[in-house]
Amino acid sequence: MKKNIPLVITFLTGLVIVVTFFTPHQPMGSMQQRLLIWYSIVLGFTMLLGIDSLLRSNLKKIAGRQPGWIYAAALVAGFLITMAAGLYTWIGTKSLLTLGSSFMFIYTYVIVPLQATMFALLAFFIASAAYRAFRARSMEATLLLITAAVVMLGRVPVGAELWDKLPVMQDWIMEVPQMAAKRGIFIGIALGTVAMSLRVILGLERTYLS
User: Fold this and answer.
1) Cα–Cα distance for residue pair 99/191, rounded to 1 Å
2) CB 170 within 8 A of CB 154
3) Does residue 199 form part of some domain?
4) Distance (Å, whole) CA 37 – CA 43
């Protein structure tokens, strides 16, 4: 019974959303917007559940002095400090985006530098992956290497100085073969999304119940 009720709710909700999406007439036309509002409300509660789960797991790691508990302590402390700064800013100014506020100070001088650090580290991982992928071990790898070199050189002023045709070749690669591959990927993503949605609506996919 505990599993059947969520399956019925999921089926009815999915069916209503599909019908309202393809039916512009009232009352179905306005019901889609109402369902999106309900979705936002439910999403807010799921975020609260996620925060609760995050704090519980990290506090348990801190209490048991498990490996990595120092990082868990830093995470909990950062969360509490940021939440306190946000509440203080909201109570005082009614907006979290007020310049010079405590929350904007944390965002500007802590969160933004951390994001920049993460993207800087990703650059090294991308360079390492590119080095492994661009090894000319086969015809496909050689073609990928040549194409990547043309695109990278065509996007910088040095490439145009070396050969004025490189920017033209780069534009053609990005607009024709790259666009065709991107559209194929998007079509595959759309078909996969439809297939998974049907599995969830029909109750064939039940991993969300575990």
Assistant:
1) 45
2) yes
3) yes
4) 10
Based on the structure, what is the number of domains in the chain?
A: 2
pLDDT digits 0-9 by tens, 34-49: 878 888 888 888 888 8
Residue type for 77, please?
A
**Degrees to nearest 5, angle at CA 192 with 190 and 193:** 65
Show the domain range for 189: 176-210
pTM, full prediction:
0.59
How many CB atoms are located within 10 Å of the residue 104 CB? 18
Q: Cβ(103)–Cβ(89) under 8 Å?
A: yes
Asked if residue 136 lies in contact with residue 145, where contact means CB atoms within 8 angstroms, the answer is yes
184 in a structural domain: yes
Could you read off the pLDDT of 135-192 as tens digits, one per residue? 767 787 788 888 888 888 888 888 888 888 888 998 999 999 999 999 999 999 999 9
Q: Please measure the distance between the N-terminal and C-terminal CA atoms of the chain and give it in whole angstroms.
A: 14
How many residues in the chain? Answer: 210
Taking a C-beta distance cutoff of 8 angstroms, is the pair 193, 1 a contact?
no
How far apart are the C-alpha atoms of 59 and 63, rounded to whole Å? 6
Asked whether residue 79 is assigned to any structural domain, the reply reads: no
Q: Which residue has the tokens 């666009």?
A: 179
